[in-house]
Amino acid sequence: MSALPEFLTFAIVGALAQLVDGALGMAYGVTSAGLLLGLGMPPVMASASVHYAETFTCGASGLSHLAAGNVRRRLFLALAIPGVIGALVGVWLAVHLPAPWMRVALTPYLLGMGLFLLLRGARRPGERAEPPRGTPLLGAAAGFVDAIGGGGWSALTATTLLARGLQPRVVIGSVHLAKCAVSIAASTGFLAGIGAGHMTAVLGLIAGGILAAPFGAFFVRRIPARAATVLAGLAVLALGINNAVRVLH
């Protein structure tokens, strides 16, 4: 594939992934990393390339959510600071150790949380906006998993916080802005450890993601809270099924 068609392909994937991610709070990293792995890129390089792109796309998305009033400062800080620490530890392990066991460990969590959210979608959505107890530990664990596998930050943080009754738009906005800080930390670590990734893929993902980011922030304010929770549950359940299929093969 020549450079221009390849760039456009990654740009389209980046735009679609960011649109879903901006509206539901998850799936950009998993979708993008899955594509790179499907093209034969080594897992560590795929994770690095996705994080390089997310440094820009999450910044655009996070700022869009901030402007739309979807971010709460305390929740953002409770996720971002420990998330950065967890990501740096995850990068070190991703560079030095194989990590297929992380996919095995994450699969039952995603399946369980997806089903839980689907059941919760039939109930009245949460109204809390303050971070619940244990949020910093959640941020550290999510940052670690995200750096290892190229995705998982939003799947872990957004689903857990939604399940604990926080407002969907507050969760999605705060998670996105925190993800920006985590991506910068992970990118710095990967750059020091393995250098630049697949630059055509990175630039394509960045271009498509930045163009689509404002639309995700707009949609999340228009989607009813229960619908957003159900859609998040379906997305997480799909991620869990995808992980399970990969583990079995």
Describe it.
- The protein is mainly alpha-helical.
- It has one domain (3-248).
- The chain has helices spanning 3-24, 28-38, 43-67, 73-96, 100-120, 135-149, 153-163, 168-194, 199-222, 225-248.
- It starts with a helix and ends with a helix.
- The mean pLDDT is 77.
List the helices and strands and how they pair.
Blueprint: H1 3-24, H2 28-38, H3 43-67, H4 73-96, H5 100-120, H6 135-149, H7 153-163, H8 168-194, H9 199-222, H10 225-248
Helix pairs in contact: 1-2, 1-9, 2-3, 3-6, 3-8, 3-9, 4-6, 4-8, 5-7, 5-10, 6-7, 7-8, 7-10
Strand content: under 5%
Number of strands: 0
Unreliable stretches, pLDDT < 50, 5 or more residues?
none
Question: How many DSSP H or I helices?
Answer: 10
Radius of gyration: 16 Å
Strand-pairing-aware structural class: mainly alpha
Helix content: over 70%
Secondary-structure element pattern, one letter each: HHHHHHHHHH
Alpha-carbon distance between the two ends: 28 Å
- Assembly of the depicted chains: single chain
Largest sheet geometry: none
- Total tally of structural domains: 1
What number is the mean pLDDT? Answer: 77
Overall body shape? globular
In brief:
With 249 residues, the chain is an all-alpha fold. The protein contains ten helices and no strands. The chain has one domain (3-248).
Question: Which keywords apply here?
Answer:
globular, mainly alpha, 249 residues, 10 helices, single chain
